[in-house]
Amino acid sequence: AQSVTQLGSHVSVSEGALVLLRCNYSSSVPPYLFWYVQYPNQGLQLLLKYTTGATLVKGINGFEAEFKKSETSFHLTKPSAHMSDAAEYFCAVMGAAGNKLTFGGGTRVLVKP
Amino acid sequence: ETGVTQSPTHLIKTRGQQVTLRCSSQSGHNTVSWYQQALGQGPQFIFQYYREEENGRGNFPPRFSGLQFPNYSSELNVNALELDDSALYLCASSEDWTSNTGELFFGEGSRLTVL
User: Fold this and answer.
1) Which percentage of chain B shows pLDDT scores above 70?
2) Predicted confidence band at B99 (pLDDT cuts at 50, 70, 90)?
3) Dihedral sign, CA of A52, A73, A88, B7?
4) B5 vs B89: CA distance, rounded Å
5) What is the greatest pairwise CA distance in chain A?
6) Is A43–B4 a contact, with Cβ atoms under 8 angstroms apart?
């Protein structure tokens, strides 16, 4: 069974500052890992995903994440926060069966001017 | 190409009633998954349909049921509604799940309130 833990349900950053969202997972098989973003009253949009290959993954809107197997982590970063980054972010894992995503509890990002 | 569309966007029901939520998958996608997102939580997997057959189910009781139609659109039915069923219900479509790319395309959800 897979599980995902996101450290920090809320993160507040200043505009222009680094955004760092933490995600740790457990999986009995090599995982596929995802970050999704959810804006208010909307569905989820894929930011980036890791399946195989390069462990540093670049996504949309300047976000990137690094898969670290030894730490079972997949933290999301963005060098410089923008007001439009205010949203909720979800880390998710998909196991070998490939038929479901297991999501973390989410981290809400607030960007201060 | 059209994205994933869900209807209705909002609805209010009372305990014990039944509800049907609908989802049209993205063009070219034959796999539909349903997720329940309670307020302040991450989405929870309800079930997946692939070529009109259920292809995996999460930890939800049998009163949660679904259908997938030949055009790959889908319905989620919930019987005997309980207060805890109040949530955002998300539909997601994907290419043939056996390709295992893992990428899901989500609709904007149907927000159900049970009074």
Assistant:
1) 93
2) low
3) positive
4) 12
5) 44
6) yes
CA of A99: how far to CAs of B28, B80, B98, in Å?
18, 27, 8
Taking CB atoms and an 8 Å limit, are B45 and A32 in contact across chains? no
Of B42, B56, B101, the CB nearest to A105: B42
Task: Supply the DSSP string of A64-112, one letter for each residue.
Answer: EEEEEGGGTEEEEEESS--GGG-EEEEEEEE-TT-S-EEE---EEEEEE
Residue A78 CA from chain centroid, whole number: 11
pLDDT in tens, B16-37: 999 999 999 988 888 999 999 9
How many angstroms away from the CA of A15 is the closest CA of chain B? 24
Binary contact (A106, B33; C-beta < 8 A): no
- DSSP letter, residue B43: -
pLDDT mean over B104-108: 92
Q: Is the pLDDT of residue A83 over 60?
A: yes
Mean local confidence (pLDDT), A15-38: 91
What the block records as the tokens of B89 is: 């219900």
Residues 6+ apart with CB under 8 A from B99: none
Tokens of B54: 């259920």
